[in-house]
Amino acid sequence: MIYRMLAMDIDGTLLNHNGRLNKESKAAIEYAQSKGIHVTLVTNRNFSTSKRLAKALKIEGYIVTHSGAYIASKLEKPLFVNKINEDITYEVVNFLERFNVQIAIVHEKFTVMNQRETDSSMLGKISWQRDSKLFYGKHYVESLSDHLVEKPVATPKIEVAFSTNEEAEEAGLALNGMYDEVECIHRGEGKMDIVAKGVSKLRGLLYLCERLGITREQVVMVGSKIDDISLMECCGLGVAMGNAPKEVKEAADWITRTEAQNGVQYMVKELFRKQHPIDFLKKMNVIK
């Protein structure tokens, strides 16, 4: 099989447990790109932080962010956007505030989070992260629903952190029963993403592939999280990191080394070293 795209999650795949990027991963991506492989990121992270990592990796094309709700190479010119409208955002947040949970409205330009009892020192805290000319604000408010009354927001994603997976599943079932406009994506460890109906990392990746003229069979997907399973099962080659949970490894076609053991570099070199550059294959009429 000739592969034309390398798609990767970020946390637990490209970044180690300290949130740092290994130089070996950067070298591996440069090697794949030298072969003419289209490299992209598929992540639940917001566009701003994902774009900074993409720049560090010299990935200039489109990346799939906000769990598939925001696909872009530049903030001001997204290829695809699907947001939860203002009214539903407010209603969902109002419902979630009945639980003792951390809620984050993850917009493409800022994040607003609620203050939990354990986060009293965070009230009113604002941090700014710079990405070229882009500033991404992250701040905390005492009541998100009150904040939304004053400043309504249509958002690509709402993130929720529950105490247990059971609480997350219970809330997800309730929300799915109450609203046809949203979908709840469970990420494990009590974490849940809420996105507009029809949004997912898989659908985002397939949308990008269609625009680039790449079939899903020509995609290598590397991940380490529960929400990467559907992508690994759908793509031509699903690769699980060695540090991934058991269920993720069981869904994969190939298990590489852990992020601490430079699993991305090992996989890329082993997989692509025997594949001729894409331009050469096109010239020889092996692929179109």
UniProtKB/TrEMBL annotation:
Pfam families: Hydrolase_3 (PF08282)
SUPFAM superfamilies membership: HAD-like (SSF56784)
Family annotation (PANTHER family): PHOSPHOSERINE PHOSPHATASE (PTHR10000), STRESS RESPONSE PROTEIN YHAX (PTHR10000:SF50)
The name this protein goes by in its record: Cof subfamily protein (Haloacid dehalogenase superfamily)
Origin species: Rossellomorea pakistanensis
Phylogenetic lineage: Bacteria, Bacillati, Bacillota, Bacilli, Bacillales
